[in-house]
Each structure stands twice: as C-alpha cells, then as structure tokens.
Amino acid sequence: MADGSTPPDPEPAGRVAAVRPFLVTAGRVAPSPSGRTMPVETQVVATAEGLAGLERLSFEQHDIVAACRIPQSIAELAARLRLHLNVVRVLAEDLRTAGQLTVHVPDTGVVHDASVLRRLIDGLRAIPDSRGVLRDSD
After folding, report:
1. Which residues contact 41 (CB under 8 A, 6 or more apart)?
2. Worst-scoring range by mean pLDDT, 8-22, 56-70, 108-122?
3. Among positive and negative, which fits the CA dihedral 77, 83, 89, 90?
4. pTM score, two decimals?
5. In which element (H, E) is residue 45 found?
6. pLDDT number for residue 11
C-alpha cells in the first residue's frame, strides 16, 4: 500500500481450491462400486507404500496420504485440507484400493450406552465457567 503497510488478506479463511470437486473425482460421487459411503468418523492411516510413493500422487491424493501419517477421520481430513467431504471419501477409497491407505470403519453394530452420555454431560456441567460458576443441572 502507499503508506507502507501490507494490504489486508482478501481471503481470511485461506486459499480456496481452484479445481471443482467433480473434476478431482472424475465425476464419481460414490466412493466404492457398491455405492456405500464411508462414515465421517472412519479412520484412515497412510501405509508405508503410500508414504514411499507420495511423489507419484496427484495434489489432493498427496495431501491426504501426507496428512495420514497419524490416524485421521474422513471429517478431519476434509476440514484440514479444505476439500469437500465426498471428494475425500472417493479419494480415500481410491487410495485404499491402491494400498496407500488403511481404512478403519467403525463398528456400526455397537449398542450405545446412554449412561456414558449422561456421565459425560454431568462431568461437563461440573467444570466451572470462567467466573467459577457451575452450570445448573437439568
């Protein structure tokens, strides 16, 4: 700028992908031939083969495998890489098929115990706010 200051960042949220999601996935919307989508909590981890072959991957695939050096959920990857959730699902399935990612789908048959949620809520209510005041219970 004329006064020597730096101009404000025109994109405060960061860089936005210039490539449309359907181009990244070649128009595919289902991550697998069966048409079943991975739940957002599905954990993915890079394999040794995936990390060794990073330079041969497309930009998005490279970013996914590199981010998966530690376990990541599909939702975390989408948020971290600023990619559409379904794009991450499709690419993660492609990378799993190629042996570059290991996918751990959560067990959907697990019965959820409501007492665990009640104890969690009670525990959160027991934490005082910034003024030291406890929340009222319902």
Report:
1. 73, 74, 75, 106
2. 8-22
3. negative
4. 0.61
5. strand 43-46
6. 43
